[in-house]
Amino acid sequence: KFYNLDDESLLTTITTNRDYDDYGNVTSQTVTTDDVDIGVFNFVTNNLYTNDISSWLIGLLIQSDLTKSDDNQNTISQTKLYEYNASNGLLTKETIDPNTDDEVIRDYVYDVFGNVTQITGTEEDQIVREYDAVFPLPPPTLVSSASNEAISSKPS
After folding, report:
1. SS3 of 4, please?
2. What would you report as the CA-atom Rg of the chain, rounded to the nearest whole angstrom?
3. Which of 39, 115, 117, 28 is nearest to 74 (CA)?
4. How far apart are CA 152 and CA 68, in angstroms?
5. Tens of pLDDT along 27-45?
6. In whole angstroms, what is the distance from residue 18 CA to residue 82 CA?
7. Which of 62, 73, 114, 151 has its CB surrounded by the most CB atoms within 10 Å?
8. What is the tens place of the pLDDT at every residue in 60-109?
9. CB of 95 within 8 A of CB of 105?
10. Which H or E run contains 121?
């Protein structure tokens, strides 16, 4: 709860409710914000997980559905799908708004240490990240697929 400091009147109430599966993963979450000035907003998230006990790959999020609504019943929804490497559980693919005109697909590539080295997808850009033996070397290089030209702020 948030209160006005001058007259101690209630300004905003935020309520969060969650449900969990047997592994402690949040399967649904509802966040309701009731604000005196802007109204009521709801954020409802439903998550689906895979739990491969034999491979010790527990809690891999495979689908997340988010719906935002206001007190005028205006809603916005988004679905995200996730795919993982079956042997190590690293994220290999993310699909945002599948089967729509707004669909975005991102593919992830890792080095032997599990660091993300490249993200490619349906967007115009590709991100390449370099690492030394242990740590990332900032910043990542942005490679524009349109011009095939590398853009980097690393010193030459």
Report:
1. coil
2. 21
3. 39
4. 37
5. 999 999 888 888 889 999 9
6. 21
7. 62
8. 999 999 999 988 889 999 999 999 999 999 999 999 999 998 888 999 99
9. yes
10. strand 116-121
